[in-house]
Design a protein that fits this description.
single chain, 13 helices, globular, binds 2-phosphoglyceric acid
Length: about 425
């Protein structure tokens, strides 16, 4: 048996950053290399994502247990992959997809499948004695971190209607300096909120989640004040990025901004974003419209796509078919890559490649429910995406990824590159 043959696969139920169950997979190769992978979980999930299997049995973890997914790993996947070569990621992932047999991984669960796919990549990298980012590719570009310092929508209880207000440190010379900028602005924002008598508790992704906001525009003002207070130039040193997560606002053809007691159609939402991009240094808007509002997306892209990055998250769900439709219909100009939306490493790579062929940028992304697993940090560098979104400057499940990226930057030494503004699609 070769050293990279899979010897054993075990799965466990663990907790994520929200205290809800998720899957961990421990994989061992014949040569002794071992790896663990932990699966993330979203709150504002898209309708077209691969299926996350939950037990749904009444009282236990309020129905959110993942023992079925754990059992699927141990009883169905483990016997099928045992003896297979972990360094052939494509074949392993193809086998996982075949074992499941459904178009959306509903049988075994994308959480079961992804745990094995990620653990396989990590174990094969360990066996080859190379760090994961190097094992995955030749990239030496550190990603621009999109840091979600103000949490709203489904990631908070009484904050903005829009889900994410992010810092984009485009003017930093290195990744480590981008993180320092983010941290200093994050703490300045705390002071700004405190001075206004607003609360400074944080939401699911570690950004502030103040109640009492009057409008969805107010966070932009607060953040600009914080950037200046920290001694940086808004726009030049640090720009802004948004994820309104508009699918969550959408019903019956209209987008409801509850905090402002009004609802807008896709054209009016586009006008609102156009207005904001004139007044604020916004470089990227993700899910500005809903997951199936293709006509709205076309209009949004025609209107703003030449000036700023428009990222499809729920719209594309890391799915090549939906990405190809978006390319054909000229919707968005960038893709959010979430490994658990699609369920395997190979399909995530395919999504990045499909976008790249059409000039679409990719942003590697965490989920709002995360763990201490740092695989996405290595993916961002190895797969050369130039951008990552992995939360605010607090909560260790977010910081773990930033710390890992700073470690990678040091390892790369003089080969490391930080792209700044050039990373963004337009
Ligand atoms: C998003 C994500 C991550 P969730 O909408 O982009 O920030 O949220 O994981 O809840 O889908
Ligand atoms: Mg999103």
């Amino acid at each position: 048996m070769s050293a990279t043959a899979i010897a054993s696969v075990r799965a466990r139920e663990i907790l994520d950053s929200r205290g809800d169950p998720t899957v961990a997979v421990d994989l061992e190769l014949a040569g002794g290399a071992r790896a663990t992978a932990m699966v993330p979980s979203g709150a504002s999930t898209g309708a077209h994502e691969a299926v996350e299997l939950r037990d749904g049995d009444g009282k236990r973890y309020r129905g959110k247990g993942v023992l079925t997914a754990v059992r699927n790993v141990e009883r169905t996947i483990a016997p099928a992959v045992r003896g297979k070569d972990a360094s052939d990621q494509r074949s392993i992932d193809r086998l996982l997809i075949e074992l499941d047999g459904t178009p959306n991984k509903a049988k075994l669960g994308a959480n079961a499948i992804l745990g094995v796919s990620l653990a396989c990549a990590r174990a094969a990298a360990a066996a080859s004695g190379t760090p994961l980012y190097r094992y995955l590719g030749k990239g030496a570009t550190l990603p621009v971190p999109l840091m979600n310092v103000l949490n709203g929508g489904k990631h908070a209880t009484d904050s903005a209607d829009m889900q994410e207000y992010m810092l984009a440190p485009v003017g930093a010379p290195t990744f480590a300096e981008a993180i320092r900028m983010g941290s200093e602005i994050f703490h300045a924002l705390k002071d700004v909120l405190h001075d206004k008598g607003m609360n400074t508790g944080v939401g699911d992704e570690g950004g502030f989640a103040p109640s009492g906001l009057g409008t969805n525009e107010q966070p932009l003002e607060l953040i600009l004040t914080a950037i200046a207070r920290a001694g940086y130039r808004p726009g030049e040193d640090c720009a802004l990025a948004l994820d309104p997560a508009a699918t969550e606002l959408f019903s019956g053809g209209r987008y409801t901004l509850a905090r402002e007691k009004r609802s807008l159609d896709a054209r009016a939402m586009t006008d609102l974003y156009a207005e904001w991009t004139k007044r604020y240094p916004i470089v990227s808007i993700e899910d500005g419209l809903a997951e199936d509002d293709w006509a709205g997306w076309r209009h949004l892209t025609t209107t703003l796509g030449a000036r700023i990055q428009l990222v499809g998250d729920d719209l594309f769900v890391t799915n090549v078919e939906r990405i190809e439709r978006g390319i054909r219909e000229k919707c968005a100009n960038a893709i959010l890559i979430k490994v658990n939306q699609i369920g395997t490493v190979s399909e995530s790579i395919d999504a990045i490649e499909a976008g790249r062929r059409a000039g679409y940028a990719s942003v590697i992304s965490h989920r709002s429910g995360e763990t201490e697993d740092t695989t996405i940090a290595d993916l961002a560098v190895g797969l050369d995406t130039g951008q990552i979104k992995t939360g605010s400057l607090s909560r260790s499940e977010r910081i773990a990824k930033y710390n890992r990226l700073m470690q990678i930057e040091r390892e790369l030494g003089s080969a490391a590159r930080y792209p700044g503004r050039a990373a963004f699609a337009r």
